[in-house]
Design brief:
Layout lengths: L2 H4 L5 H11 L4 H10 L7 E11 L5 E6 L8 E3 L10 H20 L15 E6 L40 H30 L3 H7 E11 L5 E11 L13 H14 L2 E3 L8 E3 L6 E4 L11 H12 L17 H5 L4 H13 L22 E3 L7 H20 L11 E12 L3 H30 L1
Antiparallel strand pairs: 1-2, 1-3, 1-11, 4-6, 4-9, 5-6, 5-10, 7-8
Length: 458
């Protein structure tokens, strides 16, 4: 491929910077740094140094300083989970979420979850928002209420049939309280389990635990709903089998009853009436089968589904992925009418409910909770997965430099480090290079995945 073919389509400013970068003496090192971040879109820049010494003699075994780097800076990945902000880092986040959820389904002793957890009753539950007014949809083979058969990617899907009567205030207040609805659901779930087992809550708690991992997703109408893996455990969590009474049917029944009980009251304010927020009626609870047993809802499918939405926010509704300070910005950002009305509702309601911080979360259509959460005993943590990856890379680096493992009892090394923040981001040419590297890495991953699938199918 010719040079002109590689850079075809670049605007003049980016092309000029690409040529400057390619001709700079530090180009190879810049390219290596960007590749080490996986093609991160918005890397953090650090300045500083590390020195590794022998404790006994004081002899320097290794020295590193960013003074030798291009521009005197070291780039590290931003770690942002949002695919709209950084596709490279969000891919890593999605992978970590996949392994976290999967470990809680099939077990992984290396991550602190025994293989026997696969035999515990577990379901995949989806809790949704109620209706705030009829919207354009695709109800099976039937036409929408508007009389049309909408295509799967039709832009009107999820938008109100009558925007003037749609309850925009109720929609954003529901999103804003969604995390509280979930919290009450987990409380009522334990009560309903005890009730169905014929036990006191204390006795039920002494015999069993309920663990979960969940992710939030936005429907096209802009309402948040939650997908959750919910699992029965014994008294010691994943390490112990659940009691005989902790059946799949009991868990399913308790989930449905708990969801129906949840109610969060919002007091009246200004022209807004008092509201009682509840879950929607479209509650779906399905048992999770083992991956090798042929069930429709499998462990791998659930883990993949949760991981997919862990990197998304409200962008699929047409909103933006950063804060909006006023309504004028909606026009400048060309936000579509429906999400623009939801955002405007947040801005209008903020003075009435200042403690709910609706203005700060207007770009999220009012939702202010975490997108991916889990109970303490469900499985490993994202922090532990990141630490394992960091330890692995550090071990590779030590081996390449011939340095001993600092955790070795016989090791006598001491490493002193000093780092300061020096900025973030790329120049236009570096952004193009990062995107190119990210695409190459993704292509290699896809090729490897296809080869593995072909071998497994052979």
């Amino acid at each position: 491929m010719t040079h002109s073919a590689v850079t075809a389509g670049l605007d003049p400013a980016t092309l000029t910077d690409v040529l400057r970068l390619a001709g700079s003496p530090g180009f190879d090192r810049v390219q290596d740094q960007i590749r080490r971040t996986g093609g991160c879109s918005n890397p953090i820049h650090l300045q500083g140094s590390t020195v590794t010494r022998d404790r006994a003699t004081g002899r320097i075994l290794h020295r590193y300083s960013t003074d030798s780097e291009p521009g005197g800076r070291l780039r590290i990945a931003c770690g942002n989970r949002r695919a709209s902000r950084c596709p490279a880092c969000s891919w890593t986040y999605a992978g970590d979420t996949y392994h976290l959820i999967r470990a809680g389904l099939v077990g992984d002793p290396t991550k602190g979850t025994p293989d026997t957890v696969r035999d515990h009753p577990r379901v995949f539950a989806t809790l949704t928002a109620p209706s705030f007014g009829p919207v354009h949809n695709r109800p099976g083979n039937r036409p929408c209420r508007c009389g049309a058969h909408h295509a799967e990617d039709a832009p009107e899907l999820g938008t109100p049939l009558d925007p003037e009567t749609y309850d925009y205030a109720g929609a954003v207040l529901w999103n804003n309280h969604a995390s509280e609805l979930w919290r009450y659901f987990t409380i009522y779930l334990r009560r309903e389990i005890a009730k169905r087992a014929g036990l006191t809550q204390k006795a039920a708690h002494a015999q069993s635990r309920v663990s979960f991992g969940k992710v939030a997703e936005y429907q096209k109408r802009g309402a948040v709903h939650f997908h959750a893996v919910i699992r029965f455990d014994g008294a010691e969590g994943a390490d112990s089998p659940p009691p005989a009474w902790a059946t799949l049917d009991l868990l399913t029944s308790a989930i449905k009853a708990a969801a129906a009980r949840v109610a969060v009251d919002v007091p009246p304010a200004g022209d807004q009436p008092a509201r009682t927020l509840r879950w929607g009626t479209q509650l779906d609870v399905q048992p999770i089968g083992a991956f090798d047993k042929g069930e429709e809802i499998t462990e791998q499918a659930v883990a993949s589904y949760v991981a997919k939405y862990a990197t998304k926010a409200a962008e699929n509704t047409g909103t933006v992925d950063r804060r909006i300070g006023n309504k004028e910005a909606l026009v400048l950002l060309d936000v579509p009418e429906h999400p623009a009305r939801l955002i405007a509702a947040c801005l209008d309601l903020h003075p009435l409910y200042p403690d709910r911080k609706l203005r700060d979360w207007a770009h999220m259509l009012g939702f202010r909770g975490h997108f991916s959460t889990k109970s303490r005993r469900y499985s490993t943590t994202l922090g532990a997965l990141r630490q394992t990856r960091a330890d692995y890379r550090a071990a590779q680096q030590r081996e390449a430099l011939g340095l001993p493992d600092p955790d070795d009892e016989e090791a006598t090394t001491l490493t002193l480090a000093h780092w300061t923040y020096a900025g973030h981001g790329h120049s236009p040419g570096e952004s193009w290079l990062a995107a190119t590297i990210r695409r190459d890495i993704q292509l290699n991953r896809d090729t490897a995945r296809e080869e593995i699938a072909a071998l497994e199918g052979a």
